[in-house]
Specification:
single chain; alpha/beta; TIM Barrel; three-stranded parallel beta sheet; 12 helices; 39% helix
Length: 329
């Protein structure tokens, strides 16, 4: 069963190890994801997020460029395993070659430092998806919570602060360029602003169903329905705290809970809006599925839960591939 994963933080983890002169490469490492494990897991495509923490990096534009440079250095070492994609046809061509695909994304929209012209700079570098906010307000909009200090903070839902005027210009320029808008981390108000000010499918790359786990990072039923009505996709996040509620947080990540979210979303909005967004190498949960070479365990569990082969294929890669075909020209 092919796999497309819409979100991981592996490049940042490897880059930080590189700066500390620690061993490990994209080919083989002790993180959740590396190329050898991806090959064993039957990966078709992995999104690699360049995550920039605004508190730690006062010049996010520079930091993002350093991460992208490191990303290409690693990707280009192993062309027999993986190649970077810039359009939908690249994915199809690499699949015929027997090579996996890599999609460059950014997690923190304000890497452009409020200069809209810099979106084109990142597009030219190959960025094809941007998560508009992380857990900080920026010039684009607001998250649901800002750097939660306790578990209760993660439950607070922001229905007041959405996109700024600049943020609306930002997402419309993304649509014009052919970049995928990612609303994970964005406030509820921001989600509805994206819905009302765009026309193409957008994604929540790593978010689950709030009805099953009431943290603000997850999506309400109405948000899921609106995402589905636009032809968008949400990626099931493997973080335990987003899969089931545990007072105080630090919940264990279990395949059983992933299946519950997938089945709930299917019954609510249909199978076509569900994908995978593991958040591998960006989560601290104890993981039942602790490396990407175990992804097929989820496929087996979904089959036991009653999904057909076609439905499992949609969740694992076909739904995301459909969105990429429409956006990545």
């Amino acid at each position: 069963m092919h796999v497309i994963d819409m979100h991981c933080d592996t490049i940042l983890k490897l880059y930080e190890n590189h700066l500390q002169n620690k061993n490990g490469s994209l080919l083989e490492n002790d993180a959740h994801i590396d190329l050898k494990k991806m090959k064993q897991g039957d990966y078709l495509l992995q999104n690699f997020a360049m995550f920039v923490h605004l508190d730690d990096h006062p010049h996010p534009f520079i930091t993002a460029n350093k991460l992208i440079n490191y990303y290409y250095q690693e990707i280009e070492k192993y062309p027999e395993y993986i190649k970077p994609v810039f359009c939908y046809q690249d994915i199809i061509d690499y699949q015929k070659e027997g090579v996996m695909s890599s999609l460059l994304t950014i997690e923190e929209g304000n890497v452009i430092e409020n200069d809209l012209s810099l979106l084109q700079h990142f597009y030219r570098l190959g960025v094809r998806m941007i998560t508009l906010t992380w857990n900080f307000a920026n010039g684009i909009g607001y998250p649901n919570f800002t750097r939660a200090k306790c578990y209760e903070d993660t439950l607070k839902i922001n229905t007041q602060d959405g996109l700024t005027d600049f943020g609306i210009e930002y997402i419309q320029e993304m649509e014009r360029l052919g970049m995928i808008i990612d609303v994970s981390h964005l406030s509820d108000a921001g989600f509805y602003d994206v819905y009302h000010h765009t026309t193409k499918p957008f994604v929540a790359s790593h978010s689950n169903a709030r009805a099953l786990c009431h943290v603000a990072r997850n999506m309400s039923d109405d948000m899921i329905l609106k995402l589905a009505s636009r032809g968008g996709v949400m990626g099931i996040n493997f973080c335990g705290d987003f899969l089931h509620e545990q007072p105080g947080g630090n919940a264990r990540s279990c395949i059983e809970d992933m299946v519950k979210h997938i089945m709930y979303i299917k019954d609510l909005a249909g199978i076509d809006c569900i994908g995978l967004g593991t958040d591998f190498d960006g989560i601290d949960s104890e993981l039942e599925m602790d490396h990407c070479d175990k992804m097929q365990e989820l496929a087996k569990a979904l089959e036991k839960a009653g999904l057909s082969q076609e439905e499992i294929e949609k969740v694992f890669y076909k739904n995301v591939l459909r969105v990429y075909k429409e956006i990545l020209k």
